[in-house]
Design goal:
Blueprint lengths: L1 H18 L8 H7 L3 E7 L9 E3 L4 E7 L3 E12 L4 E15 L8 E16 L11 E15 L2 E14 L8 E11 L3 H4 L2 E28 L5 E26 L3 E10 L10 E12 L2 E14 L22 E15 L1 H7 L7 H4 L5 E13 L2 E4 L5 H11 L13 E13 L2 E12 L2 E2 L7 E6 L1 E2 H28 L2
Antiparallel strand pairs: 1-3, 1-9, 2-4, 3-4, 4-5, 5-6, 6-7, 7-8, 8-9, 10-11, 12-13, 12-21, 12-22, 13-14, 14-15, 15-16, 15-17, 16-18, 18-19, 19-20, 19-21
């Protein structure tokens, strides 16, 4: 998870920086190609080739994001099964691609884009004897061809390609493999968000030529009760720096502050059973203004719980037995909460300014990276295990060998509340969330309920949409009235 977070953050930051540039003197098709942005969900249509006795039992799937119609990245995960030893392992695939797409039509609401891409790939599938995650990584590159269909705010993409990777250790993905994928994404509602290039200049303070030099040493002696003496060494340092002031530009694609409401969905990245891709549905209500983001949410569906051990580090427990699956969820659960966050794209640019005027302070970036924290309340429903046949017996057997409430999901209370932490990556109205909640029940921590989850939000600027609908209605009424007036003027 740390590998995912750090890599995704670097890719997104660099991509957003490129995306802030202007698109002058471009043809219609070039503008349409660069305007293809979405966040969505991707599923592999076939399993990549594996070795060491592993078989992919749950096709890989996960979030995917495209920027400027030229680059995309995704993180896909699923479960693999070791056929001889009955061991499970999580399979992971991360990619970053650069592609060229050729829009066949000159319309924004309906278009078809064939594309050719080159990607960098990292995959991971631990073999049974691997003790370290890093030992099971593969790094490589690949080529693919694809077709992207854009209908209104929805993007559908199919692509197929092959990868060649160098395995750093005992990775159970084969070095060469091929697979296809299908992606459904949502666009950022450019019509209502109306991003415009915003630039302002301000004075910033710069600290340069920082130096820290050793400036001597002293000793302190202290008598101990037993008659011995303790000596403490104290080093002194001198610090110096140069402070200067200069003009710096602040730039972003500004969408102005807005109130939003819209649907949210928690995806099946937490490995729900079968073909169930959505764990829970809900609604968001919040606002963005400058670097400030606030959101309230309500959702209903499955509330997952995790296994009381880390599966991919070591497949064996202290009794040298294979670890069966004992994770699952509480069905028909509800969650609601309040979140607040800081939008980093504008905040990091403004933090060095000595003074920020009101227009700059309220500049709200079309591209957003928002770490957030909040308070969440949950009501757990009926418990079930992902391994429906063996889950109950497996759980009882594990708790018998590892007693304690922290290993027993049956001791979890139905009423839960706690801290919610996460990060949101957004393009206009479309956003992707990665979050985790830390629950308590009756003031007792519930560690099995703390699990990472992916989610999608469509943050519709409701006031702008209502204004557009009202304006259209007024325009239509005025148009009908003008036709009546013209008709009466005819002799």
């Amino acid at each position: 998870m740390k590998h995912l977070l750090s890599t995704t953050y670097l890719l997104i930051v660099s991509s957003f920086a490129i995306a802030q540039s202007t698109n002058d003197n471009l043809s219609t098709r070039q503008l349409l190609r660069l305007s293809s942005n979405y966040v969505g969900m991707e599923w592999l249509t076939n399993a990549p080739a594996t070795k060491n006795g592993f078989k992919i039992t749950q096709n890989l799937y996960g979030p995917s994001i495209e920027l400027m119609g030229t680059m995309s990245f995704g993180y896909l995960t699923g479960m693999a099964y070791h056929q001889d030893s009955a061991a499970f392992s999580r399979a992971r695939l991360m990619y970053y691609d650069i592609h060229y797409a050729a829009p066949l039509l000159k319309t924004r609401s309906l278009n078809i884009r064939p594309e050719l891409g080159f990607r960098f790939v990292s995959n991971q599938l631990n073999s049974y004897f691997t003790d370290n995650d890093w030992d099971a990584n593969g790094l490589g590159m690949g080529l693919y061809v694809g077709m992207n269909l854009n209908v209104g705010p929805v993007n559908a993409k199919f692509k197929y390609g092959g990868d060649a990777a160098f395995n750093l250790g005992n990775n159970s993905f084969k070095s060469t493999t091929s697979y296809g994928s299908f992606t459904i994404g949502i666009s950022p509602m450019l019509l209502f968000m109306n991003p415009k290039n915003f630039t302002s200049s301000g004075i910033v303070r710069n600290i340069e030529n920082y130096k820290k030099t050793w400036n001597g040493r002293n000793y302190e002696f202290k008598k101990n009760p037993d008659g011995t003496e303790t000596r403490t060494t104290i080093d002194y340092y001198k610090e110096s720096w140069t402070e200067s002031y200069g003009v710096q530009d602040f730039r972003c694609k500004d969408v102005q502050p807005f109130l939003f409401v819209g649907p949210r969905a928690i995806t099946n990245v937490n490995l729900y059973p079968g073909d169930k891709k959505i764990a829970s549905w809900g609604v968001n209500l919040g606002f963005r203004a400058g670097s400030l983001w606030m959101n309230g949410f309500y959702e209903k569906g499955d509330l997952p719980f995790k296994e009381p051990y880390k599966r991919n580090t070591d497949f064996q427990n202290i009794h040298n037995n294979m670890r069966p699956r004992i994770d699952g969820a509480f069905a028909n659960s509800t969650r609601y909460g309040l979140q607040a966050g800081l939008e980093l794209v504008t905040f990091l640019q403004k933090k060095d300014f000595i003074y920020v005027d009101s227009k700059t302070a309220l500049a709200t970036s079309h591209f957003s990276i928002i770490p957030y924290a909040g308070y969440v309340v949950a009501q757990a429903g009926d418990l079930f295990f992902y391994d429906a046949i063996n889950g109950v017996n497996n759980q009882k057997a594990y708790v018998l060998g590892n007693p304690g409430n922290e290993n027993d999901i049956y001791t979890t209370g139905k009423d839960l509340a706690g801290l919610n932490l996460g990060i949101q990556v957004g393009i206009g109205a479309a956003a992707m969330n990665l979050e985790r909640s830390y629950y308590k029940s009756n003031d007792v921590k519930q560690p099995l309920m703390g699990k990472w989850q992916f989610g999608f939000s469509y943050n519709i600027p409701i006031i702008r949409v209502m204004r557009a609908i009202t304006s259209k209605a007024k325009f239509k009424a005025a148009w009908e009235e003008s036709k009546k007036v013209k008709a009466t003027d005819v002799p």
